[in-house]
Every structure is written in C-alpha cells, then in structure tokens.
From TrEMBL:
Originating organism: Actinophytocola glycyrrhizae
Name by which UniProt lists this protein: Dihydrolipoyl dehydrogenase family protein
Keywords noted in UniProt: FAD, Flavoprotein, NAD, Oxidoreductase
Organism superkingdom: Bacteria
Keyword Membrane in annotation: no
Cofactor(s) named in the record: FAD
Keyword NAD: yes
Length: 474
C-alpha cells in the first residue's frame, strides 16, 4: 500500500471539488483530488450542461416563431437527432480528458477511484483494479461527493427500472410516452424538453408544479406544458408501478387510476453521496447530509479538519452556489493553515453568506423562471414586514419588440423596514440573462431610493425595473 501526503485532500471532482482544489493551489498549498467516475461531476455530464443543451434548441425555435419575418423562415419541427447530438457534445461525449487536462494545468494530482475517509485526515482510495492508496492530509479533507437521484419506496418501482435524471439527460432515443413522477425543477425541465422533442408526457406532480416558487411561476409553467400537450396532474401520487413483458410501464395512482408509459422518470429530489465514504470512522452517520458552518466546516469533528461543500451539505443544490462555497472553503483552509486572519462574519470572504437569502436560480422551462432571494411567503415566514410589487413584463416596450405575444411577469419583494429588495422573480422568454441585476440589488442591499438612479436602457425588457419602482411609489 502506497501512502502519500498533501496539505489537503478533496474527495469528488465535480464542479465544487475542482473549484475548491483550484483555490487551495492558488493559495499556495498542495492538494490532491479523488474521483471515482468522471472529472467534472454530475453537472458536466448528466445535469446542468446537457439538460440545457436539450432545452436550448426548442427555446431557439420558439423564439424564431414569435418574431414575424423570422417566423416565415422556420418551416420544420425540431430535429430530435440533431438536438441529441448537440447534447452529446455538451456532455463531452461522456469523456473527461478536457477536465483532466485542466487539473494537470493547475497542478492538482488526480487519484482515480472511490475515496473513503479512514480516520482523522486520512483518505483511502480504491481503484477500479482493487488496489488501494492511502492519502494523508496535513491540514484538511474536503468532501465534495455531491448527490444522487432519490428513488422512493413505491411498490414495484425499482423492478420497473425507472429513469433517474441521468437516464433522461443521456437518453439516446425520445420515448413515445414518458411519465414523470415529480413536479420540481428536474421534472419541469425534462417535461419541457421531451414534450418539445416529441414525447407524449404525463407529469405526476403530487405537490404541484415548482410549488416552492412564487405561485404565478407554477401556474405559468403548468399552463405552457399543457399547451405543449403535456398532461399535468397536480395532486396525483403513484402507489404502485409495474413494467410488463412488452416494456410498457403502468403507474397505479393512489386514486386507483392508471397511467401507461414507455419510460418513467423519477425526479423527486436528491440523496447525498455519503453512504460509503467512511463517515463512521469519524463518528458521523453514513448516508446523512453533512451539516456545516458558514465556512463549510463539518460540525462535530474534533479539531475541525473536515469540510463539506456543494450538494453534499444540502445548503443549496446548485452548481454556482456550490462553486461559491468552494471558493470560501478553499480560501479559509489556506487562511487557517497559514495562521492568517479568518473573515467568517456575515458577508466575509470566508463565509458563504449568500446561501441564506440571496440564491439566484434559473429554471430553463418555457417560460424561463429567474429568481433570487426570498419569495413573498418565505419573507413573511422569516418575520419581515413585506411589500410585494408586481408588474406585467409584456407592458414594457422591449418585450413587445422581443417577441410577438410576449408574456411575462415580474415580482419584487421589499423589506419595508430597510427599504431593500429581498426577493425578485421574473417569468418570461429569455429572462435568465436579466437575473444578475436583481442578484446584485439583493446582495448589495441597495436602498430603493438609490436603485431609482440605476436607469434601464430603452427599449429593453429591463425597463421593468423602472416600472416596478414607479409602482412602488418612486
Ligand atoms: C438534471 C439536473 C439538472 C441540473 N441543472 C442545473 C443547472 O442548470 N444549474 C445549476 O446550477 N445546477 C443544476 N443542477 C444541480 C447541479 O448538478 C449540482 O448542484 C452540482 O452538480 C453539484 O456539484 P457537486 O460538485 O457538489 O457534486 P457533483 O456534481 O455530484 O460531483 C460530485 C463528484 O464526486 C464524485 N464522487 C462521489 N463519491 C465519491 C467517492 N466516494 N470517491 C470519489 N469520488 C466520488 C462523483 O463521481 C462526482 O464526480 C442540476 C441537477 C440535475 C440532477
Ligand atoms: N435549472 C436549475 O437550476 C436546476 C435544474 C435541475 C435540477 N436542479 C437542482 O437539482 C435538484 C434536484 O431537482 P429535483 O427536481 O429532483 O428536486 P426538487 O426538490 O426541485 O423537486 C422535487 C419534487 O418532487 C416532489 N416530491 C418529493 N417527494 C415526492 C414523492 N414521494 N412523490 C411525488 N413527488 C414527490 C416535491 O414536491 C417536488 O416538487 C434541485 O434541488 C435543483 O436545485 C437545478
């Protein structure tokens, strides 16, 4: 058995592990990274990038069809084979050479294999050929092992070989009939993509469509899915699943009704990849999410050598937010190792403060949903004195130019005591790129009377900022 020592060991080379390692090297420490599958993680091969590639062609086609002049030039339907090929290229054909080359470039040695903590500051790596290498860390171990799809205990479900998000994202064919259990982000995006690619989709949205967002979000996405021919069944819950010899899947609902499909996607959330990473060797529970403080240090570990960033700590299951945590964790490990000052107060360099109240997210459905911070309901639940201002995005000059029949909506949630925006939601075509202005307003806690002087250019959809402030009373 080979034993090698580094300042820091990172387990998991997804976007978060890669970024943490990079930051640690930039800080002047040595670091090794352990990866059991593909360097780049879920996001690169089975999540963010390939899903957005699956959705982009449909969005481009819709956009062209909404503008006279361009509309006449578009004569056919989506070419599914071509969409899938483009998806393949955005998943780098499930090869990680490019990302491995990047690790080499930044000076991070890669250990391929399954990583397990084997005691304080020790990680055992088991390679595909069964050989083991023990890595020891002088300062810290960072767990960035991410999450996997959660499959519920529904009678017959596992035996029916359902799709998880990985299967949907990497599908080589478009199923004739696709049923989806779930009404969240994966379910909504995949229902959009497969409906546009030609599947007949049934969505079993037990708790509603995107039900944690502002209420108008789910309403608009559900309406648009129905317009695409998707059967959206809010409140429907699967009780049993069976796949027959011919391959047809039958889902029996708790109401007794049955839904038939060729494939069934389960998209009801995630489970942490912590079942087999040696948590028991340091007194933690295998299979549990890792609870961390604002510097991503795992709670309950002796002298604090263990950190967890990204999906695995459950703070926010988004790539950009995980990478933000990775920057904080990389920098704080370096600071602590070198005896430097630790800036872990609110909005400090070593704290992922934005995770609490300023998380931006774009859901690439039709219409797109772009949101940051708290919904009105969440702000009220947090005890804030809230004022909600709504505006019809279609009433801006920019939106009329952008597309014929543009439909959209904006909501600004104001903390009345501080006169700052704490939440912002946009629904409409191409609103994704408008989100960052709202993120800056929320994170910067920009007072509304100063925001008045941030004048949106004419004629853009961003003029909604002016209209919202006028509606507020400026
Ligand atoms: C379908 C889908 C679409 C998504 N779309 C978006 C989006 O558009 N935008 C967005 O921001 N987020 C999106 N997400 C969420 C995003 O994918 C995750 O938040 C992100 O991948 C988390 O990064 P991570 O590095 O924490 O984990 P992961 O990306 O899961 O990477 C963890 C890595 O650790 C490795 N690993 C695990 N255990 C071990 C072990 N014991 N030893 C060695 N290696 C190990 C894994 O192989 C993996 O490579 C999407 C998620 C899904 C499922
Ligand atoms: N564009 C993006 O940012 C993007 C895209 C896809 C995924 N993601 C991330 O990936 C994560 C996983 O997405 P997801 O859609 O799997 O989870 P989710 O948490 O977004 O949605 C899960 C849905 O399943 C429902 N549900 C839970 N248990 C159920 C059950 N037993 N039966 C039926 N329905 C049930 C919930 O009510 C919810 O609507 C999300 O946290 C999200 O942040 C992000």
């Amino acid at each position: 058995m080979d034993t090698t020592t580094y300042d820091v060991i990172v387990i998991g080379a997804g976007p978060v592990g890669e970024n943490a390692a990079d930051r640690i090297v930039q800080g002047g420490l040595s670091v090794a990274i352990v990866e059991r599958e593909l360097v780049g993680g879920e996001c690169s091969y089975w999540a963010c990038m390939p899903t957005k590639a699956l959705l982009r062609s449909g969005a481009a086609l819709r956009a062209a069809r909404q503008v006279p002049g361009a509309r006449e030039a578009v004569t056919g339907d989506l070419d599914a084979a071509s969409v899938l090929r483009r998806r393949d290229s955005f998943a780098s054909n499930w090869q990680d050479d490019g990302q491995v080359a990047w690790l080499n470039e930044v000076g991070v040695p890669l250990y391929r294999g399954h990583g397990r903590i084997s005691g304080a500051r020790a990680v055992e790596v088991t390679g595909a050929d069964g050989t083991t290498t023990t890595l020891t860390a002088r300062h810290a171990v960072v767990v960035a092992t991410g999450s996997g799809a959660l499959v519920p205990d529904i009678e017959g479900l596992r035996a029916a070989a359902p799709w998880t998000s990985r299967d949907a994202v990497a599908a080589s064919e478009v199923p004739g009939r696709l049923a989806i259990i779930g009404g969240g982000v994966v379910a909504s995006e995949m229902a959009t993509a497969f409906a546009e690619l030609g599947s007949s989709v049934t969505m079993l949205a037990r708790d509603g469509v995107l039900h944690l967002a502002e209420p108008f979000v789910g309403e608009r996405v559900a309406e648009s899915l129905r317009d695409k021919g998707v059967t959206v069944r809010v409140g429907a819950e699967a009780a049993a699943v069976k796949r027959d010899g011919g391959g047809t899947v039958t889902i029996t609902l708790t109401s007794g009704e049955q839904v038939e499909a060729d494939d069934l996607l389960v998209a009801i959330g995630r489970t942490p990849n912590t079942q087999d990473i040696g948590l028991d060797t340091v007194g933690l529970t295998p299979g549990a999410w890792l609870t961390v403080d604002d510097t991503m240090r795992v709670e309950g570990i002796g002298d604090g050598w263990l950190y967890a960033a990204g999906d695995v700590n459950r703070r926010v299951l988004l790539t950009h937010q995980g990478k933000y945590q990775a920057r904080a964790v990389g920098d704080v490990i370096v600071a602590r190792a070198k005896g430097g000052a630790v800036d872990d107060g609110r909005w400090g360099r070593h704290a992922a403060t934005a995770d609490e109240r300023a998380v931006p997210q774009v859901v690439f459905t039709d219409p797109e949903i772009a949101s940051v911070g708290l919904t009105a309901a969440a702000a009220e639940n947090a005890g804030l004195r809230v004022r909600v201002v709504d505006y019809d995005l279609a009433a801006t000059a920019g939106s009329a130019l952008h597309a014929e029949g543009y439909q959209g909506h904006a909501r600004m949630v104001v903390d009345e005591d501080r006169k700052v925006i704490v939440g912002f939601t946009l629904v409409g075509p191409d609103v994704a790129e408008m989100l960052h202005a709202a993120t800056i307003a929320v994170v910067g806690e920009v007072p509304l009377d100063r925001l008045w002087h941030a004048v949106p250019a004419f004629p853009t959809v961003s003029e909604v900022w002016l209209r919202l402030l006028e509606a507020y009373g400026r």
